[in-house]
Amino acid sequence: MGRLFWKFFLFVWLVQLAGALGAGLIFWLDRERVETRIEAGLPPDFRPPPFHVDGHRPEHLPPPNGLRLPPLPVLLGGLLGSLFCAAGLAWYIAKPIRQLRGAFNAAAEGNLDVRIGQRMGKRRDELADLGHDFDRMSSHLRALMDGQRRLLHDVSHELRSPLARLHAAIGLARQQPARMEDSLQRIEREGERMNRLVGELLTLSRLEAGVGVALEDVDLTELIGDLVEDARFEAAGRRVTVNCEKLPNFRVRANGELLHRAIENVLRNALRFSPVGGLVTLAVSSLPGNRCQIVIEDQGPGVPADELETIFTPFFRGAGQGEGYGLGLAIARRVLAAVNGKIHAENRPDGGLRVLLEMPGAQMI
Questions:
Q1: How do residues 206-265 score in pLDDT, each as one tens digit?
Q2: Which residue out of 52, 140, 157, 167 is catalytically annotated?
Q3: Using one digit for the tens of pLDDT, what is the confidence trace for 334-349?
């Protein structure tokens, strides 16, 4: 039972107890009056005259009215007490409900800056908890709406640049027909960039909505083996070494295509920021509770400590990141979250970045 229940229970119980005690007191006093008359040898309903003819009242007789209390004042007092109790209880319950109603109306009109937790004062019941929950909900909705606006702005900005270059290439082709081939190549490159950006946005949107993410048994050893082979081929031109320890035979429950993209995004980032002649390492290990961990390290410049969490947000590009749209790590986080996994980054003590991907449900094969 909650705290509000116990407040109602105790309040009603105390009111009933007070009423019962008041009624019992009246009956007890009336009984004392009757017993007093019986002990005096008089009928219970006998009312002796208040004075004798000589002006003196017999001492052996009880008072004319005994200990009887006036019924009308008692009833009026009980009525007024019940009215005050009912009014206090109604005010105690109705005030926070009115505040909550006003806050919900404000939120329905788009005002998510209203906070009512502090208005609850020192209340410690379910209504106060509901007020604090409303504040948390408003803050979360505000963050989501700000994120959506920021995402829309970033998408518009990212699409504007290749569109501007497309228009420039088309204008150049019209002005200089002799350079038509160069203009067509530029148009093709910009079209590929836009296609890649739209593809990543669709992937990110699908992951956030949880639509079409079919899970299957994925051979993690085979998947990482293919990725390492491709990474070594890509890194050969910059003399970057990709070192992969012997992989244990793991099988995980995930979407193979998306998991491939997630690990590939992290691995490509490591290659991109590695210096010429640098080293990229990849290792897979088992963790307690049927979990596995993939660790990818590079010898690049690392990431400022205050950006270690921000790099997983869409369209974030740190200083010197160069090409890319800042969606790779965001997609990786969404892919891991879809299978109750997690990913985080940390700087290596001797320089470079370490990214750790953890997945549950890993089975040795």
A1: 777 666 567 888 888 889 999 999 999 888 888 899 998 777 788 888 888 889 888 998
A2: 157
A3: 888 888 889 999 999 9
CA distance 15 to 84: 11
Q: Which amino acid is at 117?
A: G
Polymer length of the chain: 365
In whole angstroms, give the CA distance from residue 359 to residue 354: 17
Q: Please state the pTM of the whole predicted model.
A: 0.57
Q: Which amino acid is at 170?
A: I
Exposure string over 267-278, b if 16+ CB within 10 A, otherwise e: bbbbbbbbeeeb
Task: Count other Cβ atoms within 10 Å, centred on residue 248.
Answer: 14
CB 99 within 8 A of CB 116: yes
Residue at 307: amino acid letter: E
Short-list 237, 332, 228, CA closest to 280: 228
157 is catalytic: yes
Residues 6+ apart with CB under 8 A from 246: none
C-alpha–C-alpha distance, residues 356 and 354, integer Å:
7
| Residue 344 β-bridge partners | 356
Element (H, E) at 140: helix 126-175
Q: Per the structure block, which two tokens stand in for 61?
A: 């007789």
